[in-house]
Amino acid sequence: MILLKKLLLVVVLLLVGLLVLPQGVLAETGIAALSGTVPVSLSLLCTGSDTMEPLNYANTPVHNDTASSTMNITPVSNAPWQLTAYDALTTSKPAGSEGKMVEWVTDQYIASSPKVFSVPLKIYSTGSSFVNLGASGAPVTIQTGDSNNPDGTPVFPRFEQPVAQYEKALASANTYHIIVTFSAVNT
Amino acid sequence: MKVTVHMRLGLFVVAVFLVMLMICPAPASAAILSFSVTGQYLNMGMTPDTTVYNSTAANGINATVVSDGNWKITAYDGMPTNKAAGSAGHMAEAIGENFVSGGKYLVNPLQISGDSGSNYYDIPMAASPRQIASGGANSPGGTSVWPIFKQVVTKYEQGVSSTHTYRIVVTFEATNT
Q: Could you tell me the pTM of the whole model?
């Protein structure tokens, strides 16, 4: 009986102690949020020109002469990007000649009945091969990449032109010519 | 007989109470009486190749501690759910208040100063919090600390879509020393 009373007393004292004896606060926390945005940016440097290698029927198709190229195609972006190419029929290039080289003199296409290459110019597409250059509605993806700012990624387009022996010859002052449009978009 | 039993009982009660005083935490000689953190800094303009600071006036974040003993305030990145692994201390990609799992994060960590910009320290992870302020007993008025945050935005930062931001939640902790 006495033992029981002692045990009861211990329990009571423990409970009192927990309630009465003051407890110290060891730590308190609070939070603060900070946020901001780095918007996606994209630019494309697109300058220069290229010439095709000298025609040699034993060595067709011909390719662009990279040694003499002044082309500079450089997309710069802080997000993944894709570079495409197409024939926008600029400078009054005749409809129906999409992707094909057309007779040119000095600084314009021949206006009346220009000669048109029989097959389209081809351009190299990463992960694929040489594919026909098309119209603006069917751009060819030539390269993709991840964020590359601030310096960008120089791209050196590779062109290929099959030449058949029945292609029409031109007057000496004229050339076959095409203006390729490059476009960069974020993906 | 009864007197002896009562004396023994009384001695037993005293002994138990003394044990209670030893094992239960004694009244603390120092305690954090209160601690509050207010404010946030949203819509930080992050132009590449610049450094962004919060303005204590417009985007002030305040930590106020009241203590009856010596105290310190520390800060760290508590790494909320989904905050990108490896981004401790860095602002990381989020949609609203939710971090994007595996998301992007800024190149440099956010930095904090608790001494008005004299010294800046990288925001650390929880395991090694950075002390930003300390002091002695200040009850009842308390002490307010206005930390300054500094974010170096490099020209290599990756852009995020219009519905995303770079975000961090800084945890402040007040403890007695």
A: 0.78
